Structure formats: structure tokens, C-alpha cells
Amino acid sequence: MKETKGNKKTEQNEILHVLHVFGKLNRGGAESRVMDLYRNMDRTKVQFDFMQHTARVCDFQPEIEQLGGKVYHVPPFRFWNYFSYCKAWKEFIKKHPEIRIVHGHMTSTASIYLPIAHKKGVFTIAHSRNAGVDKGIKGKLTKVLRRNLKEKCDRCFACSKLAGEAVFGKEAMEQGNVTIIPNAIDAARFTFDPEVRKQKREELHIQPQEFLIGEVGRFDPQKNQKYAVEILAECRKKNFPAKLILIGEGPLMENVRQQVEELRLQEYVIFTGLQKNVVPFYQAMDFFLLPSFYEGLPGVAVEAQANGLRGILSDAITTETAMTSLMEFRSVQEPAKVWADRIMACGHYERQNMLKQMQETGFDVKNLANRLQDFYLRVSEDSAQEFI
Known about the structure:
Order of helices and strands: EHEHEHEHEHEHHEHEHEHEHEHEEHHH
Number of helices: 15
Strand order of the largest sheet: 3-2-1-4-5-6-7
Structural class: alpha/beta
CATH architecture of the largest domain: 3-Layer(aba) Sandwich
Low-confidence stretches: 2-6, 383-388
CATH class of the largest domain: Alpha Beta
Distance between the termini: 21 Å
CATH superfamily of the largest domain: Glycogen Phosphorylase B
Radius of gyration: 22 Å
Strand content: 15-25%
Number of domains: 2
Mean pLDDT: 91
Helix content: 25-40%
């Protein structure tokens, strides 16, 4: 799609409004990363508003409103409601001329809502945050909706090379038509703190000699928590004093609970549910797991490294995730025993302060927020220059 100029040229001292589009504004990785950026924006210049595909009050809504943003909603897309979905977007764009940029993180229907915004002179961004889709009919429909998305927006962003190829195609990546925007975090917030570690382990009843393995993510097929439970079972077979903490919630949580009961591991598995602040849980962990079947560039793996945790990631995850030497990659097709052996070989180790290294790798959110803010402002001033 030919690049469009911003809806209206930003007047001096006028705040630029950028609309970020999600399915639901829960505490998932993409949503958390955008909120980190929002907190570090100069909100006298750039203000974030949010669109979600549900009328429910989202987890981040109180904070968004406190920061000066607004949360809007449109009905979820169901194929059969194509025309009413389009109508809802057309009415919204018409009603909100203050929106100069639409930044779409929900790429499944971005091919619908971004062209609608573009026709009204709004600058549009499609942002790929995953390198795969769900299995079955849902995944097939997502692929259909994403077809030719790169031609239906003004700019393509991706959190990693794999995520860019998955949504926009390998050719678009090779031609430099996709800008990589790393899933940056507030690295200082995740720096290792031995006092917080001691306190949190006491709260969780973790003994000094016990080895706490952790996974953070919603309970759905993509995240593969059942494999993490299998790994724990292999560790316990060898009398290795491991426990497993699973942070998150989702439709498969009860299935995983049932698996834990069947393996008689209830004493060794902690289900925390959804947590507003995961930092103390990283402090308490000794090892991090992410056996996902696919990811874009998982922010939780970045957070774990910022905390100095060693870990194993699925080899389906891009190697761009390993910005330190703390992570290794293994296949989830391997027996869980292989992963367990690697964990047991690691044993206890001394955690390091990773702040400087994280800042040098470009995964610190403060620097990225400044760069993205400059890009938004340039776009609003009728200039879509390269974002570097």
C-alpha cells in the first residue's frame, strides 16, 4: 500500500493520538510490551488509545485512563458479521478524527480495519507478534485473513525475523520492507535482587535446597505447559529436589492440573494464576522454561534473562530471543528426560546483574520508546522516513 500522510498535520503543541488495536487487553506479552512503551512515552507529545474486541473492562484499563488514554471496543470478528464489523470501524474512524495513526497488533483482522483507516487518511501499521498460528480451522482462517497484509498497510513491523516472515512473507523481509521492533522491557525493573528472592521463596514455601523451575504464559496449546510437567516428573524420578511454578491462566489450566494429579506431583507444582507483577516470581526461580510450539519473540524470555535466570527455550522460538548466553534451545520433540538432564546438570549457580548487558542489546524499553515516539511524530508531520 502506498504510504499515506497522517490524517491531519499535527498542529504545534497538539498531542498526537495513536490507536493500538488488540483482541483483548489482558496481561499477555504483546499488551505488556505496549504498556511498557506507553509508560515511557512523553505523553505531552504522544498519547496512546486502545481498541479491543470485547466490551469487558480490561486488566490495564484503570492504568490507561490514569495515563490519559482511552479504551474503545468493537465487536469480535466472526466472518458472518463482516459487514457489521466494517461498519463499526468506519463509524469509529469517522467519529474520532483525533486518531492519526492506527497501530494494529491484531493481525488476523488487520487486513479489514487498516484499509478502512487508511481511506480516511490515517497512517496504518501492521505489527506481527507471532511466528505461527493455532492448529485447526482457526489457524487456517487466520492465514486467509493475513494474506497480502503487507499491501494493506503503510508500514510493517515485526518483533522478530521469524514473526515477520510468518505474516508478511520471506520476500518482504529480504527486501527490507519489514522493520524489526524488539520486545523491549524495563530492564532495571527485572534486575536480580537477592532480598526479594529470599522473601518470595519464603512466601511460596520453597526450601533453600529446592530448585524452582518456572514457566510464564497463558494456558493454551501454544505454550505447552504439559511438557513442563513431564520435565518435572523426570527430575523427581532422579530424586532431584525440583519444584515447578506455572504463572498464568487460560482454558487448559484444568487439564494441566489433572495431569499433575495423575502423575501425583501436587506437592511439587504451584499454580499462581494471573499475576499483575511477575518480577518477584522470577526472583524466586532457579531456572526458566518455555517449551512453546511457536512464538514471535517472547517477552517472558527477555524478562528471565534480565533477571539473570538460566533456561531452555523451544527451538521453535527464534534465536533472536537469546541476547545473552543464559538460554539454550532444544526441541520439544525430544523426550522430556533430555530437558530434565540439562536442568539437573545446571544445578544452583550465582545470578549476575544483567542490566548493562540488556541495555546494550537494545532490549531496554526507554531507548525504544524514544525511537518509536520520534517515528510517530515524523509520520504525523507527513514524513514516513526509515525508523532506525
